[in-house]
Amino acid sequence: MPDDLPAVEADESGSGGPGRGESEEDECRQVLRILGVIGNKWSVLVVGQLRDRALRFGELHRAVTGISQRMLTLTLRQLERDGLLTRTVHADVPPRVEYTLTGLGSTLLDAVTALGDWAAAHREEIGDNRRRYDEAHPPRPRS
After folding, report:
1. Prediction pTM value
2. Percent of the chain, pLDDT > 70?
3. Cα–Cα–Cα angle for 105, 113, 88, rounded to 5 degrees
4. DSSP 3-state percent helix, strand, coil across the chain (nearest 5)
5. What is the Cα–Cα distance from 10 to 25, expressed in whole angstroms?
6. What pLDDT shows up at residue 18?
7. Which residues pair with 55 in a beta bridge?
8. Torsion, Cα of 13, 14, 15, 18 (10° steps)
């Protein structure tokens, strides 16, 4: 995929596809937009938290360290829009809202888990590499 594609304001519906009049460039743009959402650190953390059960907003907010309420809301909306989770409103008083991974979201969980396992397995080696690099390339003093 070319990495120098310009930003696209076109329809993000995902309609069309290879073999349906879609160019390779259009397909590439769609994939890049999807990766932009699912590769976001907040999306990865939210999907990971939903791996075992449905969670309410407050539970997610407490579980995803460092995320603001606004960013969690935006992340949940995008994941729902992409069909990776469902938002269920229960008619309790006060209303109770739960978020659950869909089947599609569960397939993403497999990929996210594999990536997390890789990072855990290589964290020391990467830490050592970063230290060596930083020692060989000290920050320049600001003038």
Report:
1. 0.73
2. 85
3. 30
4. 55, 10, 35
5. 13
6. 54
7. 99
8. 160
Write the secondary structure of 28-59 as one string of H (helix), E (strand) and C (coil): HHHHHHHHHHHCCHHHHHHHHHCCCCCEEHHH
Helix (H, G, I), strand (E, B) or coil at 101: strand
Judged by phi (left if over 0) then psi (alpha if -120 to 50, else beta), residue 21 lies in left
DSSP 75: H
Supply 29's token pair.
């743009």
Alpha carbon 29 to chain centroid, angstroms: 17
Residue 15 has pLDDT above 70, yes or no: no
In the numeric block, which tokens belong to residue 116? 């997390």
The pLDDT of 62-77, averaged and rounded, is 97
